[in-house]
């Protein structure tokens, strides 16, 4: 069978990562977490004393770090200049700075190229999760899913993931990040016209996974 390309987009806390990994595992497909790549480049910028709010400085540095993503959905990995970055890219510091870095066009061009190369090399197909996969990175994807959920549900899920985090603060940070991601000029967070929107507010993770697996099955 031809390689199937599945694009899963949506704001934070909608269950994108858990869903994408499970769907890829069940269907024997590769998996790419594009948010991890933007986090990785942000982590590199912070380590190299780049002022992340200076778009010129970020643009100039954008080509420097070597970012390599593993595509096994059962053990996703990411390295920056050969160093394992899986842990450090999840810190609050990176989370609070990533939207500024990902809004810079030179960063997006660089990371988008990487994503297209990885998708083209996935022989059996791939599940790619992000914000602009269906609209910009892989507009010809076979299946496009746009996950949504109420801000309350999203904040509750995120706070459940991060130990000792405060629900109200989590909700505020999440809304701020989504607003920045949706409001940027270059390929903002958006639903593609031909994407299927799934509101996960009242669904369990298992139900969302089943829903996506069914949609992929219908297209194959
Ligand atoms: O999905 P995750 O929360 O790890 O994404 C981190 C950040 O990376 C997002 O808030 C957004 O700024 C950026 N991102 C993006 N385009 C994507 C995926 C993530 O701009 N396709």
Automatic annotation (TrEMBL):
The keyword S-adenosyl-L-methionine does not apply. It holds the Pfam family Cytidylate_kin. It is found in: Cytoplasm. It comes from the Bacteria. Residues 6-216 form the Cytidylate kinase domain. It catalyses: CMP + ATP = CDP + ADP; dCMP + ATP = dCDP + ADP. Its main location: cytoplasm. Keywords: ATP-binding, Cytoplasm, Kinase, Nucleotide-binding, Transferase. One of its GO terms (molecular function) is kinase activity. InterPro entries: Cytidylate_kin, Cytidylate_kinase_dom, P-loop_NTPase. ATP binds at residues 10-18. NCBIfam families: cmk. HAMAP family: Cytidyl_kinase_type1. Belongs to the cytidylate kinase family. Type 1 subfamily. This is Cytidylate kinase. It comes from Streptomyces brevispora.
């Amino acid at each position: 069978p031809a390689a199937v390309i599945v694009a899963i987009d949506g704001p934070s806390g909608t269950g994108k990562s858990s869903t994408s990994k499970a769907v890829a595992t069940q269907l024997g497909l590769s998996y790419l977490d594009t948010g991890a790549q933007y986090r990785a480049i942000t982590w590199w910028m912070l380590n190299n004393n780049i002022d992340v709010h200076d778009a010129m400085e970020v643009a100039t540095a954008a080509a420097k770090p070597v970012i390599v993503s593993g595509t096994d959905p059962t053990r996703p990995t990411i390295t920056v200049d050969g160093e394992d970055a899986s842990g450090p890219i999840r810190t609050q510091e990176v989370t609070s700075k990533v939207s500024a870095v990902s809004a810079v066009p030179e960063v997006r061009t660089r990371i988008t190229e990487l994503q297209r190369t990885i998708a083209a090399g996935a022989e059996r197909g791939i599940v790619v999760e992000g914000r602009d996969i269906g609209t910009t990175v892989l507009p010809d994807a076979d299946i496009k899913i746009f996950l949504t959920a109420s801000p309350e549900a999203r904040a509750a899920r995120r706070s459940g993931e991060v130990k000792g985090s405060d629900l109200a603060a989590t909700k505020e940070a999440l809304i701020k990040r989504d607003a920045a991601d949706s409001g940027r000029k270059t390929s903002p967070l958006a639903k593609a016209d031909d994407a299927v929107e799934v509101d996960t507010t009242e669904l369990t993770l298992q139900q969302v996974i089943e829903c996506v697996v069914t949609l992929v099955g219908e297209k194959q």
